[in-house]
Structures are given as structure tokens and as C-alpha cells.
Amino acid sequence: MAAEADNAAVRECAEALAREELEHAELFKTERRRAYHAERDAGKLRHGPDPDNIPNEATLLALAIHMDRQLDRAVGGLAVDDPGLGDLARETRQQIDENETSLAQVTARGEQISEQAVAAACAQIESGEGPRHLPPANTKRELQRLGIYCDRCFVLYDAVVETTEVESMLHTAQRMAVSALDRASLFKQIAVVKSTGI
User: Fewest C-beta in 10 Å: which of 56, 96, 105, 190?
Assistant: First the structure.
């Protein structure tokens, strides 16, 4: 609205509302992190992938590439006309390309991918809630499943942020955690709209 409005008062109001929504989004992210850490400290997240099993940045990047490819295939199979999903698909492919470039640089420096760690983390993240190609009648359920899938990716990436002592790995995991959180929110939002017809 701010970009399209000719009226200065409308433009200022729209910009103020946009700033307010950004603050709300940041608050939700903070609260989600707080809830995750409270559950982890209470021992309720025992079954998630263990960040200590991700030995290096090469393994983290390989895992993220695999997860994003799975997500990209699932989004491509959704029978939902939503501009947010189109944006998500483009961003996911761009992130895959960026992570592949980073992975090539990291492995050129001598880091090895632990295929065993990638396979174990994928199995734990995808167990029960991985992307599936469901019939169109189950699109709402698939959106919800993809939201949970992205939440699980966030949990792992955020746990890596909390435990790693390698600065480059920390930055990579932070970037992935933010992306996973945004994706989870988008899937849940679209699922709600699909349910309510709003």
C-alpha cells in the first residue's frame, strides 16, 4: 500500500503498519525460540536430530540441500494457487544454488560430508511428516505437514546455532533457521486461509 498510495497520509499509515507487523513477526520468532528451548530443557524434544551429530559445515550444507530439494518437489506438487508459494519455490531453488556453491567451496578446503549424519538427520526430520505427494483433496493436510516439516528443520538448525563453536557454521545455521521458520509460518498461514476461505 505504501508503494502504491498517492496520498501522503495513507502512505505514512501503511508504512507505520508495516513496521508494526515486522515487530510482531520478530516477537513471534522470539517466542517460538523460547518455547523450543523450554521444551528442550524439559526433555520433550529427545527424538529430534542431535546437532552434535552434524560434525561440520559441509554436512550441514549437504543436509540443507537435501531438505530443500524435498521441499521444492512437494511445493511443485501442491494444487494451491497462492503467490506466496510461487515466491517460496523461487527462494528455495535460489537457496539450493547458493548452498551448492558454498558446499563446493567448503569441500574444496578439505571438509568431508558425513553421509551417515545426513541420512540419519533426514530420517528423523522426515519421519511421519516428510513431504508427500497427496491427492488434491488432501492439500490442506499436506500444507500442515509441510509446516511441521519446516518446524523440524528449524529445530535442528537452531540447535546447531546453540551448540556450534565454528563461526562459519553458526552463520550458515542461523540463515537456515530463519528461512525454515519463515517457511513454516507461510505453510500454516496458507493452510488457515484454505480452511476458512478468507
Answer: 105
Does 59 share its domain with 76?
A: yes
The Cα–Cα gap between 103 and 59 comes to 9
Query: Number of folded domains in the chain?
Result: 2
- HEC assignment per residue over 60-106: HHHHHHHHHHHHHHHHHCCCCCCHHHHHHHHHHHHHHHHHHHHHHHH
pLDDT by position in tens, the chain (length 198) = 877 888 888 888 888 887 777 777 676 766 766 665 665 555 544 445 677 788 999 999 999 999 999 899 888 888 777 888 888 889 999 999 999 999 999 999 999 999 998 888 888 777 654 454 444 446 778 888 888 888 888 888 988 988 888 999 999 999 999 999 889 888 888 877 766 554
**126-153: b or e for each residue (b if 16 or more CB lie within 10 Å)?**
beebbbeebeeeebbebbbbbbbbbbbb
Structure pTM? Answer: 0.69
- Cell numbers given for 44: 520433550
Q: Which domain holds residue 171?
A: 48-196
